[in-house]
Structure prediction request, 76 residues.
Amino acid sequence: MRLIEFKMERPGLVKAGDEVQIIEREGTSSYSYIIEPAVAMSGCYVGRDRIKSDHGIVKEIKHNDRGYYVIVEFDE
Prediction:
């Protein structure tokens, strides 16, 4: 299992237990991921750390003074 954190701009778009689909965006030297449909975005990952799955399960939603964060578990 692998946990990845995604930044979500507003609450209520997903909840713990939801299955989410992600898409991969390729940059010049890294990859980032978006929970569809444009719910939240990950940080950047180098090629060796790419996410192999295209879907995962929301484990937790965190909130702090910087915003909302979705923790997604991938079966890798």
Observations:
- The two ends are 5 Å apart (CA to CA).
